Amino acid sequence: MSSSAPQDTGHRLWSVDEHLADVLATVRPLEPIELQLLDAQGCVLVEDVTVPVALPPFDNSSMDGYAVRTADVQGASEEFPAVLAVIGDVAAGSGELPTVGPGEAARIMTGAPLPPGAEAVVPVEWTDGGTGGGAAAGMSPASAAPEHASGEVRVHRAAEARAHVRARGSDVQAGDLALAAGTVLGPPQIALLAAIGRGTVRVRPRPRVVVLSTGSELVQPGEALTAGTIYDSNSFALAAAARDAGAIAYRVGAVADDADTLRSTIEDQLIRADLLVTTGGVSVGAYDVVKEALSSVGSGDEDVDGSGIDFRKLAMQPGKPQGFGVIGPDHTPLLALPGNPVSSYVSFELFVRPAIRALMGLPESEVRRPSVRAVLKADKALGSPAGRRQFLRGAYDAESGTVSPVGGSGSHLIAALAHADSLMVVPEDVTSVEPGTELEVVLLS
After folding, report:
1. How many CA atoms lie within 13 Å of 181's alpha carbon, on the beta-carbon side?
2. Does the model's pTM come out above 0.85?
3. CA-based diameter of the chain, in Å?
4. What is the dihedral of CA 374, 377, 382, 387, to 10 degrees?
5. Measured distance CA(366)–CA(358) in Å, rounded
6. How far apart are CA 147 and CA 133, in angstroms?
7. Phi, psi at residue 6, to the nearest 5°?
8. What angle do CA 75, 152, 146 make, to 5 degrees?
């Protein structure tokens, strides 16, 4: 973008692929920062993380039971149990450990370190639990029956060496690669980082995306409608979609059709935005004020070379009018989407979501939604305008490999969108799609 004023390139019809390539060529991954583990959830790791210590760091029991020497329980049965002297308890977190000698056993809890001399663990269910009776169902609490940490225990079954013992390093060894750069940190990855002792991690932060709707007719949900007004659904849909893509989303209440108000609102939001998304006001109507408002957003007296917004017409349906560029002193990317609900959402999926994923630093294979080939299942042929790539809402059946249309092609049909899980793609050079035809299908969930 070379001009500080918006450029209306409407005389040229851009392809979907050209517009997306322009967006992705402008968006750069955010700079890495060091974050606490929970703050790093959803972020992309920028460094390989190696294991500093083995996990688990010591041999430990996988059962509640008794730590024993295998020779002492060899041949044990209910008729002829092995009778061992109980020398104490070994609990998880125990520091000083008793040494298990010949004819001895130690009560041991799940996760507790295997004491010296012991070679295996027999589950408490294989013993009398130190009660002198039959098979035990469990252990008596140490606080309620401390005498069971001493005395005798009868073992009814033999145990092989290392039975019910988790070996040191059986999960990961010191020096192993725990997580590779490029990993998105979800709950299991956060757990692994914590388990190996990492309190912080270096990541690309989640992008901050500000979403705002334009239109004097828009009313916030929960308020009363008056003549000529409708509820603002776009800002909610796009903020939710931004979160789903991995961003931190800020939704701004609908802005009236006034260029000065819109301009000041956008300028106020620049301080907390890595990406701005507007919806509405990009067509050719007398009250489509986004073009007017963006003529000098954030320019002030500073140098804005390289800033500016292009307004374009794309060879697609829905979503023909689009705007894209960078604004303000930090050259913050802005995507201006059309206002019809379906046009807005489809445009988000095709252009904004990839921009968010690129800001996160994800590999190219994870920037766009996955797509599959599926056979059209419909009662009649689907029409499509010549020279336009059409995106129709669909319901995809993975088992049968088919996709069915959901609702009509109107760009205002929100109810149909709510029941769709995919977009059927009709190429620019196709004007009719017969049932049984194979189509590209973009999966939305």
Report:
1. 7
2. no
3. 96
4. 0
5. 9
6. 15
7. -65, 145
8. 140
